[in-house]
Structure formats: structure tokens, C-alpha cells
Amino acid sequence: MKFDYRNPATIEIKLKVPRKTRNNGTLFMHAVLLDDSRLYKEYDEIVRTESIHTLPLVTHTEPQAETFNLLQQKAEGKAVVKEKVVRPYSHITTIAPLSILTDDLRLPSNKIPGELYPYIRVRSGKFLPVLQHNVLKSRLSHFQLLNKSSTEVNITVTVSPTSYGSLRLALHVRLALEQLFTLGFSEKDVDDVKGIFADTNLYLLSATVLIASCHLLFDFLAFKNDVSFWRRKRSLAGLSARTVFWRAFSQLVIFFYLLDENTSLLVLVPAGISAIIELWKVTKVLHLRISFAGYKIRVWRDSSADAGERSTAKADAEAMKYLSMLLYPLCVAGAIYSLVYEPHKSWYSWALHSIVNGVYAFGFLFMLPQLFVNYRLRSVAALPWRAFMYKAFNTFIDDVFAFIITMPIAHRVACFRDDLVFLVYLYQRWLYPVDKSRTDTASSMDENPEELEPIKQKEE
């Protein structure tokens, strides 16, 4: 195939797959860059004088779990057989990305960069164009399962010119990605990191690094202030217990859902930490006390409640009464629709997806009890506003990540749904202003119920 190596090129190849490769074997492609103005007498001459690069076309990995209609499978009487240990199968790539260094190199032989040295070839005192496999553009989504009936495969070879600086950066990133495997990262996690570098331009990548740093900072500050608020909180007046229960349940479900969907660790780890914190807050709401006496764990409950907590619980129960009339029918209808019309990997997967779809689609409804409590008490002073604002910043940052980081569509939509909830809370903070003479609730958590009295409501 003739092409100008200084310009991008695409080569379509229809490859006949050997039987040994189909039987869990291997297959390699040898890319040779030849000068069409020269005549070659034998293959050894090509090996000695031209740019050659070898890249694997086949990898061995676990196949994706198959999905099917659960009701149809049961009606047909077919049993689903699951392997206890999923063994890897051969997968062949459909895209082979190559990069060619087109810059005219003028380097002393003793100053060739170490990462570039294995790819350097010299002929008649001149550097040949560097040909190498662009690992960053080789994604897991490009591989397809190779079975015994796969006799032919269409492979697209893409050739992209690159500069000296870009090639060195790509090789450094490639070495860094290889180190991630030694740290325990899975192939899926490394592929997610590749997507950040390969699927975004340089300016967007730089902005992403900055935004990710801010996201981690706000995550840490939000967790720190949230834990500090609840650790020192004595009275639950003004706080919706049902909203706390819901957030704990929803965060736990979302964590298992993201785990089931093989989501990026950038999304999974904060979700796991958030779930642990929400479960801990449930123990505070239930007034549970846990002590470790020797090898025994003792759990008991303090059932005392002040007047402020009782009035809050009354408003909370009233809000939940109205909410249940709308929420439960919608969740049941969504679960039935998913069971009848959508394929799933298992009954566990269907149950998990049904619950998490209810969490994502109607999760904002469970924020209504807290909004209703705020309305009844005409106060938002009991809320942890510092932690709230850090979470609000992260919610808007998540809107940016929704287009960059690999995540389920439902989780992506939920990022934008949370924006609406935060805006409603901000409106209530404006509507029910906190007395400025009071100490900030994030700094002094041991308020008495009388301190939660709001100042005079703004006149409309």
C-alpha cells in the first residue's frame, strides 16, 4: 500500500484468521515502512535497512457478560449456566493505530533519549522515520471476541504523523501506564486513563487535570466538614431523618451499581467513601452507640429526643406521606418495564438496575422531605452549609466530567439532576436567611433547638 507518510492515512485489511489463532493462539502484525524508489533483493536487506515495528493483534481477556431477557429465557426453559471462574478468551483488534515520526532528527549518537532509543534506526548516517504502535489509541472497545467460526476479520490500520515532542510524551505516558499494572490497576482502569489522553485534545486535557485537582480538593473538604458536622451534632432539630436514610440507601446502591458496571476508579472510589459516611450518619440519626469492650461489640440506642427533634420528625413524616403516593408507583412501574423490555445479565443485575434507576430518576424526590422541613420550620440553619457548598461545587464539576470520564448514562444524567436540587436549597437559604450574629453552624455544631429560630422572613 503506497501513501505519503507525512499525511494521515487509513488502510483497510481483510485478514484471514489462522486456525491456530482461533484455537486460543496468538497473531502479530509486522509493519514495514519501505522507500518505493528502491529495489530490494531479499527480505534480510529490508530488515537491516528499513523501519519495522511488530504489534500484537490478539489479546487474551475476559469477555463481557452476555445480557438476555429474563422472562423470555424462563419461558423457553433455558437454564443460565454461569462459570465460577471466568477464563480469558482470545480477542482480536479491529483497529491498529500506528504513529510515524516525520521530523528531521539531528541528534548526536550519545544524546539519544532513553525512551526513544529502541525505536531508532540509522541508514547511511541518517535517522529513518520512527514507526511505533500508538498504545494510547488502542482501546478495549476495539477488540472483538474471536471464536472458532471467525475466519475473517476486517482490520483498519491508521497511520498518523507525529512530532518529536509528541512522540516522546506518548512514550513517557506509555511507560507510566505500564507501571499502573504493577500498582494493581485492572486493564479496564488503565483503558479509562487512556481515554483521557487519547480522546481529548491538549487544551481540554489540561483543563481536565485542573478540574480533577479541584474535584479531589472539594471532595476532601466536603467529607471533612460533613464528618465534623455530624460528629459534634447533638440535636437533630431541623434535619430530616428520612432524607439521611434515603441518602445512605441510595449511595450504597449507587456504589454497587458502579461496581457492577466496571466504572472508572475516579468515580467509584469517591462513591464508596460517600456511602461509608452516609451509613455512619444513620447511626447518629438513630442515636446508636457502639463500644468495644474487649472482644465484644456492644450496641445500644439512646431514645431521648427534645422538642425540636419531635417537631422536625412530625414534619418529616408528613412529607414522606405525600411522597410515597408518587414515588412507589413510579419505581414499581419502572422495574416492571425494565423486566419485560430490557435485557439483563442476571436477576441480581435486574434488581440492582431497577433500584438504581429509581434512585437516579426519582432520587431528587427524596430530597423533598428536607425541603419540606425547611419550609415548616422556616429555617435552614440546621444544615451543614460548608459541606453543602463543597458538594455543590463538585456537582457542577461533575457536569464537566460527565462528558470525559467513563460512567453509566444514568449516573451521567444524575449529575445534571443534582444541579436542580442544589439550586432549590440555595433559594431556601435566600428565603430563610440565617442570623449573621450566630456562629456558623459548621464551626459550632452543638446548637440548642431554640437557636434554630429564623429571623424575620424577607418580605416579598
Automatic annotation (TrEMBL):
Subcellular location, principal: membrane
Region of interest called Disordered, as start-end residue ranges on this chain = 439-460
Name the catalysed reactions: a 6-(alpha-D-glucosaminyl)-1-(1,2-diacyl-sn-glycero-3-phospho)-1D-myo-inositol(in) = a 6-(alpha-D-glucosaminyl)-1-(1,2-diacyl-sn-glycero-3-phospho)-1D-myo-inositol(out); a 1,2-diacyl-sn-glycero-3-phosphocholine(in) = a 1,2-diacyl-sn-glycero-3-phosphocholine(out); a 1,2-diacyl-sn-glycero-3-phospho-(1D-myo-inositol)(in) = a 1,2-diacyl-sn-glycero-3-phospho-(1D-myo-inositol)(out); a 1,2-diacyl-sn-glycero-3-phosphoethanolamine(in) = a 1,2-diacyl-sn-glycero-3-phosphoethanolamine(out)
Membrane topology is: Multi-pass membrane protein
The record's Pfam families line, in alphabetical order, gives: CLPTM1
Report the domain of life of the source organism. Answer: Eukaryota
**InterPro entries assigned to the protein according to its UniProt record, in alphabetical order:** CLPTM1 (IPR008429)
Q: Write out the transmembrane intervals.
A: 202-223, 265-282, 322-341, 347-368
Annotated compartments:
Membrane
Output the Gene Ontology cellular-component terms: endomembrane system; membrane
Keywords from the UniProt entry: Membrane, Transmembrane, Transmembrane helix
By sequence similarity, the record places it as follows:
Belongs to the CLPTM1 family.
Summary of the function given for this chain in its UniProt record: Scramblase that mediates the translocation of glucosaminylphosphatidylinositol (alpha-D-GlcN-(1-6)-(1,2-diacyl-sn-glycero-3-phospho)-1D-myo-inositol, GlcN-PI) across the endoplasmic reticulum (ER) membrane, from the cytosolic leaflet to the luminal leaflet of the ER membrane, where it participates in the biosynthesis of glycosylphosphatidylinositol (GPI). GPI is a lipid glycoconjugate involved in post-translational modification of proteins.
Q: What is this protein called?
A: Lipid scramblase CLPTM1L
Organism equals Heliothis virescens (Tobacco budworm moth)
> What lineage does the source organism belong to?
Eukaryota, Metazoa, Ecdysozoa, Arthropoda, Hexapoda
